[in-house]
Amino acid sequence: MLEIKNLHARVGDKPILKGINLSVGEGEIHAIMGPNGSGKSTLSSVLAGHTDYEVTDGEVIYQGENLLEMEPEERARAGIFLSFQYPVEVPGVKNIYLLKSALNAKRAHQGLDEINPVEFLKLVREKLALMKMDEAFLHRNINEGFSGGEKKRNEILQMQLLEPTLGLLDETDSGLDVDALRIVGEGINHLRAENRSFVMVTHYQRLLDHVKPDYVHVLAGGQIRASGDFTLAQRLEKEGYEGLLAEA
Amino acid sequence: MSALESLISHSGSSAEQQSARAVLARMGLPNRRLEDWKYLSLKHLENEALTAPVADFDGHASEYDIPGFNAARLVWVNGIFCAPLSDQVTGLTWSNQAQDLDWVSPELDGLAAANRAGAELMEIQVSPELVMPVHCLFLSIGEQQAAQPRLQWRVSANAQLEVLEQHAGPGANLVNMVSQFDLAADAKVTRYKLLNTTQATHTAHTHARVAKNADFQNHVIDLGGRFHRDQIKVELSEARATTRLNGLYMVDGRYQSDSHTRIEHLVPQCTSAQHYRGIANGRGKAVFNGIVYIGKNASQSATEQKNANLLLSNKAEINPKPELQIHNDDVVASHGSTVGNLDDDQLFYLRQRGIGEDEGRALLTFAFAEQIAQALPCAPLAEYLEQRIAKNLPMDVL
Asked: Residue A161's closest chain B neighbor by CA?
């Protein structure tokens, strides 16, 4: 589904990704772990097409297409969803408007008509219930005045609705208390499917206790330094990044 | 003949009008040499002769109604009050025999002088029996007429006035208006001023004086036109008087909008708040000049001023000038003014959800203005405004 080869990227003059190689197959969950400043968030931002980052070398093939040539909205419509580490507040735009526009943009891409309002509301209510969110959320401005946990839940709500092919979860566990972490974890698990993959970027193991990855990679200094199965995350928890990276 | 010569020739005959006429002849119309007129000028009036206004209208005033805003309608055509088109309503009485408050001095500028010299004063008394909102419709019909409405609102103790002042119509007139609001103790006025004329040159002076516990709220919406200038002064003259001045100005093409506000805290324990937002596109020009004056005696004053501007084109221009003048130490004051482009992070967030770049930009522009619409304490008007803002955008965002 996703092939990353020798990916280099920088922000301004500062190189951050220095040759990432990663292959994500259909239905797989990959966890990218790493110390602060290792380039984890940069990787998900580059995959989503954030304009602050410049790709200087390498390629990314997504479903047979050159991902790096696609605009951010084209990537989104093709099924790439980024759950932001810091979801952006957009005062003056209601959540429900975003949900509807995003869903219809995707449907248009698939050659479908706009969703009818009754069907839309039914669908949204179902997803709200799953994320244990109140319907009032729909009529609030996007993320404005939301707590950290509410913002993250709102991200997963959007992901539920848009049913992406590739979910990029950037530090989705940060800022969540235990209960919110469980709800968010369930929200992600609910979406697991044979044809849907995830790349989860995280600093800690705690999200991985709820959403068990198939593969774990350790990113440091802009490169993947170690890869393994779930037990790698458990070793990291015990030995810390320094211990593990010294060995590697 | 110039507009100035026309205005001088239209003066009335009373002693006060003749004296204002002399002031006008001496000062002329404002020009860019005046500090308050530095950025935008009335130069286009130099070679425009203005005729005396004619109240000629054969349409239906209801065409200009705001859906859902049920109000008593008062109609002016080219600055002339039209009683046959206006509603009678309990709690509201009008007269053209009243003594002028004369709070807007002819010495203020040539436009104030021209209005005093040429206008007929209408006083509207508001009593506590008034329960219905009022819709003052100022229609501008025809070409190059000098429309000069002059209004004086006397809002008695405990009375409440919700008034929409709408300027509309296709006329290319000069509309030079003066409004005075006299709020007695515990009175409340909420005024919405909707500038919906594109061809008229609109200039206005408003002066409000707010007594004990009274509240004056003013929401100005300038949807863009050839030349719109709105100048307002609010005096908080007795304890616990409050005011809020909100505004939205949107200029595109070669439209010009000029907002000048002055809030004066003259006694202790008064509160004021202000939030103006502007969007300039094309070759549009806008000015925001907001002064808050806190006098020596005005301890325990609180004031908050916000001004945000969105510059969408490199040929557009916005000149913000927020100004706090504080002469007392016991004051809580904040102010901030920004000019910027759309937020890149917000735009990326929308695009990451599949919304195209153009639609995302349109949506964020709408959202910027929407914050003033959302603050309107009148749902039908907020909805009307949202639709109007959305209409100026390249796609459907509602």
From this structure: B353
Distance CA B101, CA B153 (A): 10
Per-residue model confidence (pLDDT) at position A248: 59
> In angstroms, rounded to a whole number, what is the distance separating the alpha carbons of residues B36 and B47?
22
Tell whether B325 and B396 lie within a shared domain.
Answer: no
Task: Tell me which DSSP letter residue B72 carries.
Answer: E
Same domain, B394 and B335: no
Shortest CA distance to B175 belongs to which of B151, B145, B207? Answer: B145
* C-beta separation of A49 from A72 below 8 A: yes
User: Does B342 share its domain with B366?
Assistant: no
B123 and B225 co-located in one domain: yes
Nearest CA in chain B to A79: B354
Ordered mean pLDDT values, 10 residues apiece, chain B (398 residues): 94 96 96 91 91 92 95 97 95 96 96 97 98 97 94 98 97 96 98 96 98 98 96 98 98 96 98 97 96 97 97 95 95 94 95 94 92 93 91 64
Domain limits at B387? 358-398
Cα–Cα distance for residue pair B73/B77, rounded to 1 Å: 13
What is the total count of domains within chain B?
2
Give CA–CA dist B39/B391, Å, rounded. 28
Distance CA B304, CA B318 (A): 21
Q: Is the same domain home to B336 and B204? A: yes
Which residues on A lie below 8 Å from B357 (Cβ)? 71, 73
A50 and chain B: CB distance < 8 Å anywhere? yes
For residue A81, list its beta bridge partners: A167
Per-residue pLDDT of chain A (248 residues; tens, 9 = 90+): 999 999 999 999 999 999 999 999 999 999 999 988 889 999 999 999 998 999 999 999 999 999 999 999 999 999 999 999 999 999 988 999 999 999 999 999 999 999 999 999 999 999 999 898 999 999 999 999 998 889 999 999 999 999 999 999 999 988 888 888 998 899 899 999 999 999 999 988 888 989 999 999 999 999 999 999 999 988 888 888 888 787 65
Chain-centroid distance, C-alpha B144: 21
Which residues in chain A touch residue B360, judged by CB atoms under 8 angstroms apart?
73
Q: For chain B, say whether A53 makes contact (Cβ under 8 Å).
A: no
Q: pTM of the entire structure?
A: 0.88
Tell which A residues from 67 to 126 touch B, by Cβ distance under 8 Å. Answer: 71-73, 75-77, 81-82, 84, 87-93, 97-98, 101-102, 105-106, 109
Chain B residues touching A87 at Cβ < 8 A: 349
Task: Check whether residue B240 and residue B387 sit in a common domain.
Answer: no
pLDDT score, position A243:
80
Chain A / chain B CB contacts < 8 angstroms? 80
Q: With beta carbons under 8 A apart, name residues in chain A contacting B368.
A: 92
Q: Is residue B299 domain-shared with residue B398, that is, in the same domain?
A: no
ipTM over 0.85: yes
Beta bridge partners of A3: A23, A61
Same domain, B287 and B369: no
CB A37 within 8 A of CB A205: no
Tell me how close the Cα of A145 comes to any Cα of chain B, in angstroms: 14
